[in-house]
Amino acid sequence: DTEVTQTPKHLVMGMTNKKSLKCEQHMGHRAMYWYKQKAKKPPELMFVYSYEKLSINESVPSRFSPECPNSSLLNLHLHALQPEDSALYLCASSRGQFNTEAFFGQGTRLTVV
Amino acid sequence: QQQVKQSPQSLIVQKGGISIINCAYENTAFDYFPWYQQFPGKGPALLIAIRPDVSEKKEGRFTISFNKSAKQFSLHIMDSQPGDSATYFCAAGLSGSARQLTFGSGTQLTVLP
After folding, report:
1. pLDDT-based confidence at B15, cuts 50/70/90?
2. pLDDT value of residue A53
3. Edge-to-edge strand list for the sheet holding B56-59
4. What distance in Å separates the CA atoms of residue B42 and residue A17, rounded to the nearest whole number?
5. Mean pLDDT, to the nearest integer, of B33-52?
6. Are the C-beta atoms of A99 and A83 separated by less than 8 Å?
7. Looking at the predicted structure, is the pLDDT value of residue B89 above 80?
8. pLDDT value at residue B98
9. Contacts of A4 in chain B (CB under 8 A)
């Protein structure tokens, strides 16, 4: 099973809303990632978690708050987003943070209105 | 140093033809070179990957050619099919780096029936 599952698939939220994106993997991977992808652009790394601890924050605004409750789950809490934050948010995982073979989820298409 | 340049930006091929996408990198420390295939609204899917100790890797209709001295690698899709129409991203990874992958800018491939 090489599946990374993300929910919801689509999300529309207002600028004052609070919402969360969820990601789950059962491959025993110990590194998980959040990426942001705008249309016709490559994915951009946002956060890296290794063994449930935040390893890298690529200077992401605080309105994005990641959380890793356990080794299989990764959340991204969203608050007071801007319309320019509308994008496809991708979760990925790998065996370890220094293992380069990454598997991506289907993504959550986020629209901020 | 970390950039990966991908060309062409878009490619149109007839069914049965060969699709070729090229990437060039600068950082000689990169040691993992994957290609991802992404359909609209979906997450990137790992297609094929190569490490610098080999010059070519073939999986079905997909072949990676790697030229270490030129710091270039390419994806060849033989007998291209309309179902191959997607965006292809090359990437370069550095074992030991938690930042995972540096992506190319993407190539939108259209295979005409």
Report:
1. very high
2. 93
3. B4-7, B19-25, B72-77, B62-67, B56-59
4. 25
5. 93
6. no
7. yes
8. 61
9. 43
> Cβ contact (<8 Å) for B100 and A55?
no
Contacts across the A-B interface (CB distance below 8 Å): 68
3-state secondary structure of A97: coil
Q: Does B94 touch chain A (CB under 8 A)?
A: yes
Element (H, E) at A7: strand A4-7
Q: What are phi and psi of A101, to 5 degrees?
A: -80, 105
- CB B109 within 8 Å of CB B87: yes
- CB contact B33 to A (< 8 Å): no
Q: What is the pLDDT of residue A1?
A: 55
Instruction: Determine contact: B101 vs chain A, CB below 8 A.
Output: yes
CB pair distance less than 8 Å for B97 and A102: no
- Measured in whole angstroms, how far is the alpha carbon of residue A15 from the centre of its chain? 19
Cα–Cα distance, A16 to A91 (Å, whole number): 24
- State residue A62's pLDDT score: 94
Contacts of A45 in chain B (CB under 8 A): 99-100
Report which of A16, A22, A11, A9 is spatially closest to residue A82, judged by C-alpha positions.
Answer: A16
Is the Cβ pair B105, A45 closer than 8 Å?
Answer: no
Amino acid (one-letter) located at B1: Q
